[in-house]
Specification:
51% of the residues lie in helices and 13% in strands. Keywords: Cell membrane, Membrane, Transmembrane, Transmembrane helix.
């Protein structure tokens, strides 16, 4: 036989990619993980973005509220600048020289402090007001008006011409020039009787007066912007008092706007002209997270290296003046006070989210336990197994985290991306690592069958005991340090990171302690329960004892979420209570109508008919009552004792018994007498000053009353201050008893109706409006929204953690019910079995969460001041706002955990009963 060539056959390995196979095998689990990671990454990235946005808005609102008068940097030349000869001084004042220096200053300052070139201005102005004696000018008290001569830049760009034309400079203007042109603002022209063509004669120095002809009247395009408002007299004249005049006569102060090249003419007046450069910050370019850098830049410009460079560019005699650094410092104080409170919610919610991600990985590892055991038995290494699981999870988690980051950036644009990217990356990393780490920990050893880890029978290893004791020691030490700092007289601990971590630390301690204590009652009840006749009770107790011993993560998630929710609810409730208390102290009632000259007749009846008004209390207030013993004036209020006492009880301000103010029966005439004085309530300061002796008081209308202090109250509704007297209005003379205020109580009185009833002669204030006014900064409102969102997200993750815990045991419970139904267990008994089995864990989480939340609030209360968050100022009318436990925030989340657990158990029993037992009892199922 001839040799037949046999072609070589190449052996090809058929390998199915691990990641693709696993994703196809469990698409639902992969989609659920992607959704969880995307939502978590979105929330994690959105938090720093939201904080940045409201921080920026808060600083910009602070700059706008402060106004250009405080936020602009004023650079000007001192008087030493005029030492050069007259010819050189004229050159320095010309427009070209001032403009060149302005360009250099903008370039220097713009590197450190963002400036707005459009609103930054420059020019020449007189430093002294010049009296203009022209008789046709307006003279309120027959005093001639005074003017500043100002030669600003770009007047045409910042104004509209109302009449005439803009002034033009004469060629070669010098100190000897006798006539110049000028413009005035429309408000200046109207109030000082100036028209186009008017000539004002400004006094000269050793020469004839400078004739200033008004050629145009201009209207500011943006009167509130820095160009006009940094020096308000440019657009609006003001009234000033004559110095040393006992009659306090007033005169007008205005500004004449010269063309820039006419500035040398000011040298011929006694106005002492100076060059100036007004630098306006660019509000849209400042950020709330950098006030320290901005403050440093302002300090450098005021008296530092930057000022030295400005002097080199403009003049050695340049000085700087601004309050911009104070605005930055105020914002930083507000930010520093609010930030730690937001960090508490963020750390609690972040911890719960991290625990849920770890629980999701643990659930996936438990679901695939048989698969992983088989792989290890067939020789898979821990490194190879962890690498495959990591790749499998990363394919899902990384794109999901990127999607969440993109959604957060799209929803909250304009903030710093760095922290958002870091938060999303941390979310992706944790989601990727949870499954591999859990698998490596559970399958270190190769084994087919694992011992059951019942919580009632398990004995924790020494390694776990050491780890728990270490963690417990660190947590207790940190909390003790925080508590010591919070109750000491040292620095305010509100900025300490321990404050932010306190709920988490308390939750860690509580979770470790409760997991250790949970088996004890189960073991104690196991023997007595075995003697019961029914099957459901003993079986449910035995099932509760068969809970997995690794219950720290679910319990930590629930305790941290409940603690954060209770703490957040207490903070928000405390803020609302502090604002409401401050509002009611400021108004004195639910609404208030004031008319210092006396209320119009019939007003009380009209106010009573306004929707929402329940009661009206008329009060007469005399703010100039004067005790006749040389003491200062003491505000005196005449009230109806019954109505005013009811009002005091309603508001909780200075409550008293109406009989205390009753006028003595033997008083025969209004005003009382030395024998029968009017009873009076007084502030502590007034009560200490006058004691209980009768003393006369002269009222504002010249009449007299005799009063005797019968009680002291810290506050009273109608009067605000440390000194006051309150008497029965029936004992006052008729003129003094005329009502000047109406204090209104009711359920949300109609503001429009009250103002319509009061008319134009009375002022109406509402408690609801005062409440809203205390939210003065986007820092406050933004922090509250972030806080509420963080608490809501934490609650959502707590529900998810609870569902994951129940989902983990769902297959085993379903199989149990199926087996028991074959033994005669009814559906009602199966429902009771699952509910009773779930109750011990639910009650443990609810009771532990309530106790933990209460402990966290009590722990942090000494170191947390809610005043800044509530009213944006430490000078709250209601005093410091303290953190107190809120019963609703403590109990409602805990009850929700119990209700949800019982509901899920009942729903599972119902659903399992509908499906039947065949599917749950298939041969070969691993349970």
């Amino acid at each position: 036989m001839s040799d037949v060539a046999v072609p070589a056959v190449r052996r090809v390995r058929a390998v199915a990619p691990w990641v693709r196979t696993r994703l196809r095998a469990a698409p639902t689990a992969a989609a659920a993980l992607a959704l969880l990671v995307a939502v978590t990454a979105f929330l994690a990235a959105a938090l720093p973005l939201a904080v940045d946005r409201y921080d920026d808005a808060g600083l910009r609102r602070a700059l706008e509220a402060a106004g250009p008068g405080r936020t602009t940097v004023q650079l000007y030349t001192s008087r030493a600048d005029f030492a050069p000869p007259p010819g050189e001084r004229e050159t320095q004042l010309r427009h070209a020289a001032v403009r060149a220096a302005h360009a250099k200053i903008l370039a220097l300052a713009g590197r450190m402090l963002p400036l707005d070139p459009e609103q930054s201005s420059y020019g020449v102005r007189t430093t002294r007001r010049l009296e203009v004696p022209d008789p046709w000018l307006s003279r309120p008290d027959e005093v001639p008006p005074q003017f500043l001569l100002v030669a600003p830049n770009a007047l045409a760009d910042h104004s509209r011409l109302r009449a005439g034309r803009l002034p033009r400079p004469r060629a070669g203007t010098t100190a000897a020039t006798r006539a110049v042109e000028a413009a005035v603002s429309a408000e200046t022209a109207r109030k000082l009787n100036i028209e186009v063509g008017s000539v004002l004669h400004v006094p000269g120095v050793e020469r004839a007066p400078l004739a200033v002809r008004v050629t145009g009247i201009v209207e500011p395009r943006a009167p509130r912007e820095a160009y006009w408002s940094a020096t308000p007299v440019l657009r609006s004249p003001s009234l000033a008092n004559v110095p040393g005049d006992p009659q306090r006569s007033v005169f007008w102060v205005g500004a004449l706007l010269l063309p820039p090249d006419a500035a040398p003419a000011m040298l011929g007046t006694p106005g002492t002209p100076e060059r100036y450069w007004t630098l306006a910050p660019k509000v849209s370019a400042v950020h709330g997270h950098e006030p320290a850098r901005l403050t440093s830049a302002v300090a450098s410009l005021e008296a530092g290296p930057l000022l030295q460079r400005v002097r080199a560019a403009a003049s050695p005699d340049v000085e700087a003046d601004t309050a911009l650094d104070e605005v930055f410092a105020d914002h930083e104080r507000l930010r520093s006070a609010i930030g730690p409170l937001v960090a508490v919610a963020a750390s609690g919610t972040g911890t719960v989210a991290a625990v849920v991600l770890l629980m999701a990985g643990s659930l996936a590892a438990d679901r695939r336990r048989a698969e992983l055991v088989l792989l290890r038995a067939r020789g898979a290494s821990l490194r190879g197994l962890a690498g495959r699981l990591l790749a499998e999870t990363a394919v899902v988690a990384v794109p999901a985290a990127a999607l969440g980051l993109a959604a957060a950036r799209s929803a909250l644009p304009g903030a710093r991306p760095l922290y958002a990217v870091a938060a999303a990356a941390a979310t992706a990393l944790l989601a990727c690592a949870a499954l591999p780490l859990r698998a490596v920990a559970a399958h270190r050893s190769v084994r087919v069958h694992a011992a059951r880890g019942d919580v009632a029978a398990a004995r924790p290893s020494r390694r776990r005991t050491v780890a728990e004791l270490t963690l417990l020691t660190v947590a207790v030490g940190a909390i003790v340090a925080l508590r010591t700092r919070g109750t000491s007289d040292g620095p305010d601990p509100s900025g300490d990171p321990l404050v932010s971590l306190a709920p988490v630390l308390v939750g860690v301690i509580a979770a470790l302690v409760l997991v250790r204590l949970y088996p004890l009652p189960l073991r104690a009840l196991a023997r007595p329960a075995g003697r019961l006749r029914g099957v459901v009770g003993p079986l449910s107790l035995a099932r509760a004892g068969r809970t997995s011993a690794s219950a720290v993560l679910p319990l930590l998630a629930l305790l941290t979420a409940l603690t954060t929710a209770a703490f957040g609810g207490s903070v928000l409730t405390g803020v609302a209570d502090a604002r409401d208390r401050a509002a009611v102290l400021a108004v004195g009632a639910d609404a208030r109508v004031d008319a210092p000259g006396g209320l119009p007749s019939g007003l009380t009846d009209r106010v009573r008919r306004v929707p929402g008004v329940r009661d009206v209390t008329a009060v007469s207030v005399d703010s100039s009552a004067h005790p006749q013993d040389g003491r200062p004036t003491v505000p005196l209020a005449g009230v109806d004792p019954d109505g005013y006492a009811a009002l005091a009880r309603h508001t909780g301000i200075g409550t008293f018994d109406a009989d205390v103010l009753a006028v003595p029966g033997d008083t025969t005439a209004p005003g009382g007498s030395a024998a029968a004085p009017l009873p009076a309530l007084a502030s502590p300061a007034v009560a200490e000053r006058y004691g209980t002796r009768p003393f006369p008081v002269r009222l504002g209308d010249g009449s007299h009353v005799t009063v005797r202090i019968v009680g002291a109250r810290e506050r009273t509704p109608v009067l605000v201050g440390e000194e006051f007297l309150v008497v029965d209005r029936a004992g006052l003379p008729a003129a003094a008893a005329r009502p000047t205020s109406l204090l209104v109580t009711g359920d949300r009185p109609d503001a429009h109706g009250l103002r319509a009833a009061a008319g134009d002669d009375a002022r109406v204030r509402l408690r609801a409006e005062a409440f809203a006014a205390y939210v003065d900064s986007p820092l406050q409102s933004g922090a509250e929204r972030v806080y509420a969102a963080a608490v809501a997200a934490g609650a959502g993750y707590a529900v998810l953690a609870l569902l994951l815990t129940l989902l983990r045991a769902a297959p085993e419970r379903a199989a149990l019910l199926a087996r028991l139904r074959t033994m005669g267990l009814t559906r009602a008994q199966g429902r009771r079995l699952l509910v009773l089995e779930s109750l011990p864990q639910a009650l443990l989480a609810a009771a532990g969460g309530t106790l933990t939340a209460w402990a966290a609030v009590r722990l942090l209360a000494p170191g947390v001041d809610l005043t800044t968050l509530a009213v944006a100022t430490a000078a709250s009318p209601a005093g410091p706002a303290e953190l107190r436990t809120d019963p609703v925030s403590l109990l409602v989340p805990a009850l929700a955990v119990v209700v949800l657990t019982v509901g899920v158990a009942a729903a599972q029993a119902w659903w399992t009963g509908r499906r039947g037992s065949v599917r749950e009892l298939r041969a070969g199922d691993v349970r």
